[in-house]
Write a structure and sequence with these properties.
Elements lengths: L15 H38 L9 H24 L4 H22 L5 H19 L15
Length: 151
């Protein structure tokens, strides 16, 4: 009787394609999934931290929840950053927008610090607000002196 021939023959050499399908492809797929899961875990930590600072309670997040919250947060950041900058073509406008955004982030940070004296943080926040208001006030055009004439 002859030995069986075909893919079930244990003594036949394995082609590159068969080896790729049997060994390499599953290994690459496991590595890809591990990389995705590592990134999702990192995203989860970042999203949970961001949501907790905003006062939301997050206990258990599925992968789809993590991705959905990340997309929502990125849209929110994009809307915040694109608002004032779209209208600012001149350097003064860009400076005002940048200062306002920086002051806003500084205020948010100061108000969230647990050990800082509330009176000090309030004074700093008020000062930043006054500076931002001063930037928004229109500056009067420079006074032009009448040209001096000798006659």
């Amino acid at each position: 009787m002859l030995a069986p021939q075909g893919p079930h023959d244990l003594h036949a050499p394995i082609s590159r394609t068969q080896r790729y399908k049997k060994i390499t492809k599953p290994l690459l797929e496991r590595q890809r999934r591990a990389r995705i899961n590592r990134c999702l875990d990192e995203l989860k930590e970042l999203v949970v931290t961001a949501l907790q600072t905003e006062g939301e309670n997050v206990s258990k997040l599925e992968k789809a929840d993590i991705l959905e919250l990340t997309v929502r947060h990125l849209h929110h950041l994009q809307q915040e950053s694109s608002g004032p900058e779209e209208n600012c073509q001149n350097p003064k406008g860009r400076f005002e927008a940048g200062f306002s955004q920086c002051a806003s982030e500084a205020c948010h940070f100061l108000l969230s610090l647990p050990g800082l004296d509330p009176q000090i943080s309030r004074r700093i926040v008020d000062h930043l607000g006054q500076c931002a208001d001063g930037l928004r006030r229109p500056t009067p055009p420079p006074q032009q002196q009448p040209m001096w004439r000798p006659w």
